[in-house]
Amino acid sequence: MASKHYPTPMLDVLEEGPWPSFISGFKALRDNHPSERIRNTINGLLGQLEHSYETRMGYWKGGTISVFGYGGGIIPRFSEVGHMFPESKEFHTLRVQPPAGNYYTTDMLRQLADSWEKWGSGLQTFHGQTGNIMFIGADSKNYQHFFDEINEYGWDLGGAGPCVRTGMSCVGAARCEMSNCNEQAIHRHLLNNFTDDVHRPALPYKFKFKVSGCPNDCQNSIERADFAVIGTWRDDMKINQEEVKNTIMKKAAEIGKEGDRSAGRQYMFDNVISRCPTGAIKLNDDDTITVDNSNCVRCMHCLNVMPKALQVGDDKGVTILMGGKRTLKIGDLMGTVVVPFMKLETEEDYERIVEMAQNVIDFWAENGLEHERCGEMIERIGLVNFLEGVGIDPDPNMIKQPRNVSYVRMDGWDEAAEEWFNRKRAEKSAA
Amino acid sequence: MSAPKMRDPIESGCPDGFQYMHPVMRRNYGQWLYHEDPRPGVLVHVARSGEKIWTVRAGTQRILDVFTLRKLMDIGDQFADGYVRFTIRSNIEYMVADGAKVEPLVKALEDAGFPVGGTRNSVTTLSHTQGWLHCDIPGTDASGVVKAMMDELIGEFKSWSMPNRVHITTSCCQINCGGQGDIAINVQHVKPPKINHALVGNICERPSVVARCPVAAIRPAMVDGKPSLEVDEKKCICCGACYPPCPPMQINDHQYTQLAIWIGGNHSNARGKPTFQRLVAAGIPNNPPRWPEATAIVKKILKCYKEGARDWERMNEWVERIGWPRFFEVTGLPFTKYHIDNWRGARNNLNSSTHIRF
Ligand code: HEM
Ligand code: SF4
Ligand code: SF4
Ligand code: SF4
Ligand code: SF4
């Protein structure tokens, strides 16, 4: 027998309006799911959520549970109002790692759904803000069974707690003409090198990898990843001058001035030429454009406006920024450029980036304080100590401007200058 | 008694995505030439080989029940060769190799209640965190705020009427797991935690709780002869970070939560460098189930942006151009002492020039 439905007058209001309603989905499970266990669980969940809406309070508390062999990957949830809504008093979330770029076949999703309704609540999210598929609502009896089942057919838990977290990657090379790198390969090389660190939380705090194929940074990695990999290129962007001319006339048509070349040119001046942050792009009298590539900072704006006329160059690689993070504990921090450019083509290139990530995590694991993100450690010890710790040479691309405070000891200046010249000579002879 | 034999996990990590990728995308991996936008919610990408792939993007309720998931999969089987992907903001995307299937696919999605849109200069789906459904320190319910707000912004989702794309995010506390966007709606706790001293000594690892506080407001203390903690309430910024390691430091409180709105977060490098969001409004009632006050402010900001910004200007660029005083003027939002930064490095946010618009 299904228990009596808890009333949900406030949640009912969230079924109104045109946007898809999660509450309607919950109710469908509560009312129509063949499994009595699921019907009851969702009934309890709706009861507790309604109670939260009425009292404006959350009622979950954490704990520690994990699957056999791992130390993390599950967010345990126990209800503080379990006496009122016993059906959902245990409601743990399993974080499951998706493929880079979040592709699925419908078959695979059906298989996951089948397993999840066998063992869990029938509720899942694609995806959490860290990038995991979140299977929300397993009880303590069943989560291990669910994990065992999906683990057999190819899925693994992501991270929770002080560990390497699930990575995120943009759609990139699979479907985006802006892509400068193989996001899939970068993502899997990096993440799967740290599988042990994903599953067994033993780091100072969380560590996130995110990969975007170009500086549009669709994954928001500069702001949110400890280790952000952004595709870029360093030779000239490619220009299809015929398409530039077409774009001018197309833009004229779009703004309601079909056939008016000067209106199209005005649009180009207003929206492309004057928006280039470095003044690197010029529109010529004959409707061609010229780009001063040595001053282009690959901001992507002109390519975004004219995707058919402009393409990224051929000499592709990545920029790596480290130490981005959200608010806790010292405020939001952007990642800092640590590697301005790196080729990623050969197996050795991939080994180099994995090794670099390993050095960074090792150094931070040793020197970070408890609950200190990598970026906070960099702020505390200074970028120079960090660079020395991970074996990377200083580069003017790492800064917005040189220091402006004169309080600094400079007795090692001569050696540092010599190092710079040696490095420059070595780069020259290698080129 | 011997322990039951447990199965060792297969530590496969991140799965290979190629097995789930549409064959046209697999064949043309890294070989895309350009894309066009035939209509809101639809993209067509053209590869060097001449092959094309159409993408249809639809909004979802993010927390999917298995019935809804299967409904989305049925549509994928019928129109999209059985391939889907999800975007970072929980929109679903269907990829099809046959342009003739696009309109029927759009219709099938709309008929099933999934709005098609969220591309180019639209307001795409709000991203959100856990809220009352799952977190242990939430001030409000993220899923509900998002549903209520998208009900009113659905027209903007389905059209291209904004100057540039608009990303809206929510976070259910100041720690801010989610809130990073052109508009970020975040919950503020506004009262320091209430401490249940009887429990602290048994449950909390006190040094790590002390270390967790961003403003060093927590000190070890003896209360009623028992080891506990005390909070310097003048220092406390009510972030709630002490709660997860120490649940007796209860931060949730039905009276003392409110919503705050931040704008101008922009993670792209296009034109300018990435920017973090800035506080514009606070003290907004945490008013379930529809949070009308927050939605009204968001709509007001969107309207001013739409009227005032130039093509391609993201919200931060619009405000940089017109200046913050004008922003507060056109939106009618009050400017208060709380808008003036007093966190680390705050003086970088003060004006040290005579650049003033009159
Ligand atoms: C114990 C209660 C907490 C819960 C249940 C919780 C839950 C979440 C969830 C569900 C996400 C999205 C993750 C995913 O989908 O994989 C998330 C992301 C995040 N959480 Fe929490 N969180 C908690 C506490 C915290 C705390 C105390 C902090 C900060 C100290 C924090 C910082 C973050 C950040 C920065 C992100 C997002 C980062 C990103 O990927 O951009 N969370 N959290
Ligand atoms: S980050 Fe660049 S390559 Fe990746 S999806 Fe966005 S625009 Fe495309
Ligand atoms: S990519 Fe950006 S910096 Fe380079 S030319 Fe275009 S607009 Fe200018
Ligand atoms: S924003 Fe705060 S309340 Fe919301 S999920 Fe993150 S930690 Fe929890
Ligand atoms: S709520 Fe935040 S600021 Fe206040 S005592 Fe707890 S950790 Fe410190």
Oligomer: heterodimer
Write down the overall geometry of chain B: globular
How much strand of chain A?
Answer: 5-15%
Hetero groups: protoporphyrin IX containing FE, iron/sulfur cluster
Distance between the ends of chain B: 82 Å
Explain this structure to me?
The complex is a heterodimer of chains A (431) and B (358). The radius of gyration of chain A is 26 Å and the shape is globular. Chain A has 431 residues and is an alpha+beta fold. Chain A has 15 helices and 16 strands. In chain A, strands 8-9-10-15-16 form a five-stranded mixed beta sheet. Chain A has a four-stranded antiparallel beta sheet with strand order 2-4-7-6, with helices on one face. The model of chain A has no long low-confidence stretch (mean pLDDT 96). Chain A has helices at 9-13, 22-32, 36-55, 106-119, 143-152, 183-193, 195-199, 221-224, 241-254, 261-271, 301-305, 347-367, 374-381, 383-390, 413-430; strands at 60-61, 74-75, 78-79, 92-96, 103-105, 123-126, 133-138, 168-169, 209-212, 227-233, 238-239, 281-283, 289-291, 310-311, 316-322, 336-342. In chain B, the strands form four sheets. Chain B has a five-stranded antiparallel beta sheet, covered by helices on one side. In chain B, strand 1 (32-39) and strand 2 (42-47) form a beta hairpin. Helix content of chain B is 26%, strand content 21%. Chain B is α+β, with helices and mostly antiparallel strands and 358 residues long. Chain B has helices at 23-27, 66-79, 102-111, 142-157, 197-203, 206-212, 292-308, 315-322, 324-331, and strands at 32-39, 42-47, 52-58, 63-65, 83-86, 92-96, 168-171, 183-189, 194-195, 218-223, 226-231, 249-250, 257-263, 278-285. The interface between A and B is large, with 127 and 116 residues. One iron/sulfur cluster binds at residues 129-130, 135, 137-138, 171-173, 175-178 of chain B.
